[in-house]
Amino acid sequence: MxxxxxxxxxxxxxxxxxxxxxxxxxxxKIAPHEVLIELFPDAQVINLPQNSLIMPGLINAHVxxxxxxxxxxxxxxDFLQWLYSVIGNRDELIGSCDLTCMTKATQMMLDSxxxxxxxxxxxxxxxxxxxxxxxxxxxxxxxxGSQATMxxxxxxxxxxxxxxxxxxxxxxxxxxxxxxxxxxxxxILIKKALQLVKEEKLPLSAHFLESPAExxxxxxxxxxxxxxxxxxxxxxxxxxxxxxxLAHFAEIPTLLTHVVQATNEELELLNSSKHTVIHCPxxxxxxxxxxxxxxxxxxxxxxxICATDxxxxxYTLNLFEEMKIALFMHHSADLxxxxxxxLQSVTKDxxxxxxxxxxxxxxxxxxxxxxxxxxxxxxxxxxxxxxLHGYNISQIYINGKKVKGE
Length: 406
Ligand SMILES: [Zn+2]
Known about the structure:
Helices cover 39% and strands 23% of the residues. It is of the alpha/beta class. The strands form 3 sheets. It has an 8-stranded parallel sheet with strand order 8-9-10-11-12-13-14-15. Strands 3-2-7-16-17-18 form a 6-stranded mixed sheet, with no helix packed on it. The protein has a 4-stranded mixed sheet with strand order 5-4-1-6, with helices on one face. Helix 5 (151-166) packs parallel to helix 6 and helix 13 crosses helix 14 (335-354). The structure holds zinc ion (ZN). Zinc ion is lined by residues 62, 64, 120, 207, 257, 309.
């Protein structure tokens, strides 16, 4: 047992003072130091410097490790232009991102306080890096393929990758399933995969209504995507519209990434199926997809969480940076309320959506904690300052084990 003595704890938008935390793998008890030391006289005591704050470790629900080699290669500004550049450079990007490159990406996340992440894996090449990472990992094996004739080999390849991820037996590693998107996965494949998801109760994710081009293609089988599908796949029509796609997910709460282009009708369906929206503001801006309407999501009672997406559409994997961009992107939202909501989204809400027992400094939760060095006594605007100032993270604990700091 360890007892850690911060000056402050940040939990549920509030600042708690004069409390210490006794923990092992999980948080055992939160109480004044005198009480804890009496209960656990043999515990190792960790003292922290003046103005230290403990907060939950951050959870990045959506990242693509396999594309971590990108820096200046892909073209930003327009979704289709970006997609063509992904296809044109895919082999080189994937080929040049080895274990070292992907480990650098997981370390980049750790350095900025990310203690859990959801990795969307297209090829399974990131399995080794994800399983060796110090973080809790939900490993989303992605299924893709819009042509019925290719369904069997694609499904077999998906199952082989899923099985490989199931063979990883380590604390904090969860195999999961991702359906790439409504435009890229044939309904036959979706049905087969979701049958498995239901039977095995696997976490589930999908990209949904990211770009204006996707919206137009799903609705009218037209627009910028038409040329793409005709040229690459000789496909004239979308395999599903948005509603048909969502119908597959009606009984399975799913993490839907982007959702920038959804209509009120689609948002209503998201609400009725208790889906969670993953908001990636930097990616959305760089790929010319617009800004998610957070107000509309809240009006429809839809939970949303913030994430970085991969380095294929971001310059960093840092949730503090991502939250800062969100603060400025959603310029008409109340500043402090949005800061609080963003912090909750990458801790408690992301944990719930991914089915992880973490995201809160509460008894019984896994001890995934950050210690931050504030510059002075915090005030009621702390949530805002946490996002703005990039305070030094002196120590990081994951499942009670120290992974960073003296
Ligand atoms: Zn993605």
